Amino acid sequence: MSTQKPYRPRPISGFPEWLPEQRAIELKWIDSIRQHFERHGFCSIETPSVETLDVLLVKGETEKEIYTINRLQADDHTDDARLALHYDLTVPFARYVAQHFNELVFPFKRYQIQRCWRGERPQAGRYREFCQCDIDIVDVERASLHFDAEIPTIVYDALRSLEVTDFYIGISNRKILHGYYQGLGIDDVASVIRIVDKYDKIGQEGVLTMLQSQLGQSEKLSRQCTEIAHIRTPDMTFVDAVKALGVQSNLLDQGLDELAFLMDQLDDLPRGVILADMAIARGWDYYTGTVYEGWLNEFPSIGTIVAGGRYDDLASSFIKKKLPGVGITIGLTRILGALLPENRLELGPKCPTHVLVILPNEEQRKNVVHTANLLRQRGFNTETYHEPAKLSHQLRYASKKGIPYVWFPPFDENGDHEVKDMVSRAQVSANPETWTPGHNV
Amino acid sequence: MSTQKPYRPRPISGFPEWLPEQRAIELKWIDSIRQHFERHGFCSIETPSVETLDVLLVKGETEKEIYTINRLQADDHTDDARLALHYDLTVPFARYVAQHFNELVFPFKRYQIQRCWRGERPQAGRYREFCQCDIDIVDVERASLHFDAEIPTIVYDALRSLEVTDFYIGISNRKILHGYYQGLGIDDVASVIRIVDKYDKIGQEGVLTMLQSQLGQSEKLSRQCTEIAHIRTPDMTFVDAVKALGVQSNLLDQGLDELAFLMDQLDDLPRGVILADMAIARGWDYYTGTVYEGWLNEFPSIGTIVAGGRYDDLASSFIKKKLPGVGITIGLTRILGALLPENRLELGPKCPTHVLVILPNEEQRKNVVHTANLLRQRGFNTETYHEPAKLSHQLRYASKKGIPYVWFPPFDENGDHEVKDMVSRAQVSANPETWTPGHNV
């Protein structure tokens, strides 16, 4: 033991870390999400954790706080491009598609489950390091609007498999708000959208005040600007509701048509899971059509748990091709971070072990190892106890780790193997080559 | 399309990125390694990508180049501890065990498959970002030497499952070199070991020269220092070979006893897979007993593909407990990085899709989606073609992506489904609720 006073490690704010029984849930979730993505033909890719700053800032300054990386002992940086940790998986994906264009087959459908980093002030639902699960479909020249309908279906299935049921996915189309505000004669549409996007946080009155004070709009125009944001319907009725506002715009009509098409395609999902929601403005610059935002009904304060949309022009920053795409992110860390502290999830096991083989004495070690290997070959996760400690001690180890079965090798050559069910406490004879557990392991 | 000249992205040196068919191998390998780790009862944990610099430097300055992270738009850093990306998974694990000590059950066995970062100059086998697969066992006060034998067995099984067969794992014990040099009357043992560690790179003559020029040793003593490093045996004969050098040291004897115990325990593995190798010195400061180094026989220049050892004193930097442990790392990226460019591995599929369902015309879309969902529910990864393109076009898509089966929905209500095997080109009637593929998918 060191005689120095130990350095007491503490959690780093914004960088979550789970205990094994929590991590078991996260891993199970990732496996399930991945399976759903593959079920629909999406391939896995990963990109490096870093990109050059040029790539990350290709769409102009981002509001997101970017972490750059620097060598601690660097004597010179002259040959290094400035590198930074990616803040999402969409920009790296666009760069990937452009860079490997000739080696990919289109429409290219990929999933990507990786960590992202943002140097934001930690708060509820905000992490500095977090895991995102992305799917995107990118095609050449034109990407079918059917892809926009497929994406939320996959996410719906994936979330349901995690037993996350109390959520909805709001959908809109950027052309709707853009067209509506253009139809109202507004020039600086982007500023209006930026303010209306705060609707959830500051409410209607707050938005009205900001539109008037910051943009010098009349009260009447400001009210017209917010009227559309109230419209949220589980069906096609949003079309008539928007049209009733009496604003004329071809862009608006196009957006309504596209969204109506999606709502029709998604009609088979349970009512209320998909909402046409005119309030969605989404900050990212690169969305040009469909936009998605998913929320946990019980935890609105943590923000969106699902986000995405259609981009017509993202990869074209990197290649002289038009490569439109549509994609979505599941914010895995944000969901887990909301549900785990609330004890809404049944914790996983502390270890994956199905069977602990008891070591009665040192002479038996070879037999014990042999028995364990037999069980492993049959697919059971198996540990041997590492030393011939008292039986009560070995049983306590199994109990504390939640290992469901304890195996007793025979005492002599003619004896039987026995296995103890740690739940029912029943102990019976068993053959390691044929044994099947009474309950699922 | 943007009218700006596109920014042409290029690979970032030292940060590997794989195509989908390469990533498919990596993912298969990670799944297999993980399954082997779980088969032996190791639980999954992950730690944040960053630690405070205090933690990473807790054993004093490291030779490894550390990447710190800094917020690009930071106005002040006053409340931020200095954060840096971890350069291995062992130090974060020691911190994890100390921090969560009261919530863990010991002996604690965990695996951890994560990226690490080192700001080193890229060269063969060296990456700045790489994936490591670690297992460690940590116990309180005392950790059984049997753990030291279990660890290479698990790694042997895991590597074999990847069809990486041409490798060996060298094992030594730090007490052997330390005791041997102490027995030779050398005070500055660390400096001698640092030089002898270069044996692989600069050869015996180089080491002899350095020992004399840098440490002022006599030629005779220098020769004695290197004599032990020649000893490498697939069996217990190393004990007599070392003893024949005639150096007396209790520490040396203890190291030989421990290593002999391991070689005996590992006797069941095929001869030549495990070598007692006295030349292993390993750079890390924290190893105190057993040390492991694995090599690909065909690619010695890329360095160790497996590395690890026993540490008695690592977590004690963070907690007033003695928490000895033993662990090992599989350098996944390094192995893939050696074998992929040499075409030593059969590439994976470009996508995970088993079946592409043809979309003959827009009217059939609902049927096509229904058929695809049936196949998905039965466990087949299934895509539908997104638009009613020409049949040849849809078939070419399946062919280019390597999708093994193409499904034709019935032309009318009384028609049959048909499925085409893209390998044999045979096309037969099939029922989506009962169909089984002719070859494995």
Characterise this structure.
Two copies of one chain form a homodimer. The first copy, chain A, has helices at residues 20-39, 53-56, 90-99, 145-161, 174-183, 189-196, 199-215, 219-227, 238-243, 250-265, 332-339, 365-377, 391-401, and strands spanning 43-44, 50-52, 67-71, 83-85, 108-117, 129-138, 167-173, 232-233, 274-277, 290-296, 306-311, 325-331, 355-357, 382-384, 405-408, 417-421, 427-430. Chain A is of the alpha+beta class and 441 residues long. In chain A, helix 1 (20-39) packs antiparallel against helix 4, helix 6 (189-196) packs antiparallel against helix 7 and helix 7 runs antiparallel to helix 8 (219-227). Chain A has two domains: 20-339, Bira Bifunctional Protein, Domain 2 (BirA Bifunctional Protein, domain 2, 2-Layer Sandwich), CATH 3.30.930.10; 355-430, Rossmann fold, CATH 3.40.50.800. The first copy, chain A, is built from 13 helices and 17 strands. In chain A, the strands form three sheets. A nine-stranded mixed sheet of chain A has the order 1-5-6-12-11-10-7-9-8. Chain A has a five-stranded mixed sheet with strand order 14-13-15-16-17, with helices on one face. The two termini of chain A are 39 Å apart. In chain A, helix 12 (365-377) links the parallel strand 13 (355-357) and strand 14 (382-384). The longest helix of chain A has 20 residues, at 20-39. In chain A, 34% of the residues lie in helices and 19% in strands. Chains A and B meet through helix 1, strand 1, strand 2, helix 2 and strand 3 of A and helix 1, strand 1, strand 2, helix 2 and strand 3 of B.
